[in-house]
Amino acid sequence: MQLDIRHNWTTEEIESIYHSPLLELVFNAASMHRKYNDTAEVQVCTLLSIKTGGCSEDCAYCPQAARYSTDITVQALMQKDEVLSYAQKAKDAGSTRFCMGAAWREVRDNKDFDRVLEMVKTVNELGMEVCCTLGMLTEDQATRLADAGLHAYNHNLDTSKEHYSEIISTRTYDDRLTTLDNVRKAGVTVCCGGIIGLGETHSDRINMLHTLVNMPEHPESVPINALVAIKGTPLANNPKVDIWDMVRMIATARILMPKTMVRLSAGRTEMSIAEQALCFMAGANSIFAGDKLLTTPNPSFDEDNAMFSMLGLKPRVAFKEDHQQINAVV
Ligand code: SAM
Ligand code: DTB
Ligand code: SF4
User: Fold this and answer.
1) CA distances from 271 to 113, 207, 330 (A)
2) pTM
3) Which residues contact residue 191 at a Cβ distance below 8 angstroms, ignoring those fewer than 6 apart?
4) pLDDT tens across 69-128, in order?
5) Does 225 contact ligand 2 (Cβ within 6 A)?
6) Given 45, 97, 132, 191, which residue is catalytic?
7) Domains of the chain
8) 3-class DSSP state of 276
């Protein structure tokens, strides 16, 4: 019997899905989505950069790497009350998940981390799903975040293992996998995906999906970002991501990981509503809302509300997945 939720996919199997005729691929992904999820529902997450710029890593896409000369304003770690007021605004605008990002290579056991733990606790008390993306973590740090009420940790693979060293030289793919393991061990849900438009091949994308789907548990959420090409970074002149590539990537992720939240992440300002609708059709069921991602623009809450009502979509309630079993074999 062919099972839908699997952890033993071969590269060839994924290749044949990814390269199938586009409309067939979208139909199959939409069918899988309908089988496992409420297709009218889209999770609305809000991002906040709690510490901006000055990062010691050399991620070639990132405006926050200290070594590139970009237009961002460097900002030390925010105060808890300021973060709380952003979270409250996001909640009032209909967001159920709040993700705090810091331009750190890794978390260190110091006063700043203590402050982040306080932020996690406070936002959790608002009744929102709290997510953080703070760089590398030890198991002990992941446990402290879990104890503070962290729901999810975002740590992207970004691309394939083979392409990784073309994009980042200051850490390895295995470093990424170790942190993801630490997050799992602490009982925090995993948010892990990648970026398309980094100059990778179709095989690199397929290999990244192969790594994600064959993890012992599928990540609960998989963000698919289109590169936002930033002046001053090595990838500033990369060509705009083709919408059909975005659709192919989302549809393949949906077929491979039927119950995962597949997030249509960076790059929406460059997409029409019709193009975003295709992504939702192909199985995307989560977005970042609010007029800023971490440092770059994003559609406003008003624009997204208008899109939701046009497409008949509704925001997903918080903590719904706690009542579902994401990796149960079906
Ligand atoms: N420093 C932490 C880390 O690297 O994990 C957390 C913040 S980092 C900015 C979070 C993610 O944002 C990256 O892993 C990358 O996938 C995404 N990202 C950063 N810059 C981007 C860009 N220009 N376009 C698309 N995605 C981007
Ligand atoms: C993810 O995969 N995408 C978000 C979130 N996780 C942290 C970040 C996108 C950042 C885009 C560039 C910027 O705004 O700085
Ligand atoms: Fe940017 Fe994160 Fe890389 Fe730092 S580690 S340069 S913040 S993506």
Assistant:
1) 36, 26, 34
2) 0.96
3) 131, 133, 152, 153, 154, 155, 219, 220, 221, 222, 223, 263
4) 999 999 999 999 999 999 999 999 889 999 999 999 999 999 999 999 999 999 999 999
5) yes
6) 191
7) 41-329 (3.20.20.70)
8) helix
